[in-house]
Amino acid sequence: MRYNVCLKRTLQGFKKTTPHWNIYLDAIEGFVSESKFDIELRSRRSLPLCTPLLSQDTTFKVGQNTKFGRRVSATPLYTTRIPPKLRYELFLKNELAHTLHPIRQIVRVFLATYKSLSPRFDKLFSTAATPEDVENIYEETIVSVKNFLSFVTEFTKLVYPPPTLDDSSEEKSTQAEYIDRMINRKICDFIFMETTSPVYTYAFRCLELKKSVELSNFKRLLQDYSHKTLQEIDEQLPDKFLLRGWNEPYRNVAEGISLQKDIANPFTKKEIFTTMEDRIRNTIIAYYLSQGREAPHFIAEPDQKISIYIYALIQSKHERVILDLSFIDEFTGREEDNQSYILFNSCVEFLTNGKFRL
């Protein structure tokens, strides 16, 4: 089978439903017709990383380079047992590392088409006056990217079938979601490469319109409470969390929030927000060690973490954090088991609903 055949099959499953989505499908179909994309897929036999990926044990060593990545020989160098979905992830990372890989070429076609629509987007933003106008902008600037992510995910799974899952139906569903999310992340590495790119810039401009009330509330909160200490924010917070004597307690947490300004990939953004609890714990440990005291073993309760988050959010002065979180939810979805991220997100939603008062 050839890459263009796989792509045509994928295109059949993504019907032309709206005028703006048709633009991208037409561009991709035009690219399929080019002879340079008429490339033969490597067979299963020539994918020694793929075949062991789907079996019980992995025995491999790095061999010579192939056209779209590194081939792995069947000659044993070491043997290890890696979960199938992780082996599949390592395989994809290896395959997509080549800049001329057809999947990455499809991404470039999409990005070039998206950029060419900049004048159209600018006109939409300049004339937006009603909720319907904002929804139309959302469809064109964000939903089209989400549609493309779904499209490329299906194309990738057709080119490189994921491992067969023999577990219960519930575990199959969970692992299938993991595979889709993992592929999405790989593709987002190529779509959201810079915070100055059109696809990132227009997505944030759209979210700024959709979240204008929450954004205004948060900006006002930053101004009103910019000089508040942690103890003033929560008078009931136990002394052990106040880090007395430090001029900038929990600066590590505030810096993690500010770091969002420089990151474009929504999955990387999410990872950083997920580390907020670890940053709190590491800060507390560093404080006690700096005092020549034994590192504590206590754990902050959810309400105590929220007080620290509120303080760190104010100290970060990052007004657009609500947009970062909305952007993350648009392109990564909400994971029910990611409690650290859910708690931080809930804290920001509480601060931006306009009802927060000290």
Layout: helices, strands, pairs:
Elements: H1 3-12, H2 19-32, H3 50-53, E1 58-66, E2 69-80, H4 84-95, H5 102-116, H6 118-127, H7 131-159, H8 169-191, H9 198-210, H10 212-224, H11 230-233, H12 251-258, H13 266-274, H14 276-290, H15 302-316, H16 321-332, H17 339-352
Antiparallel strand pairs: 1-2
Described by its quaternary structure, the protein is: single chain
Q: Kindly, what is the distance between the CA atoms of the first and last residues, rounded to a whole number of angstroms? A: 64 Å
Helix content: 55-70%
Rg over CA atoms, rounded to whole Å, is 24 Å
Contiguous helical run count: 17
Q: β content, as a range? A: 5-15%
Task: Assign the structural class, choosing from mainly alpha, mainly beta, alpha/beta, alpha+beta, or little secondary structure.
Answer: mainly alpha
The topology string of helices and strands comes to HHHEEHHHHHHHHHHHHHH
Low-confidence stretches: 43-79
Strand count, sense and barrel status of the largest sheet are: 2 strands, antiparallel
Mean pLDDT value: 83
Which of globular, elongated, flat, extended, rod-shaped describes the shape?
Answer: globular
* Sheet with most strands: strand arrangement: 1-2
Number of strands: 2
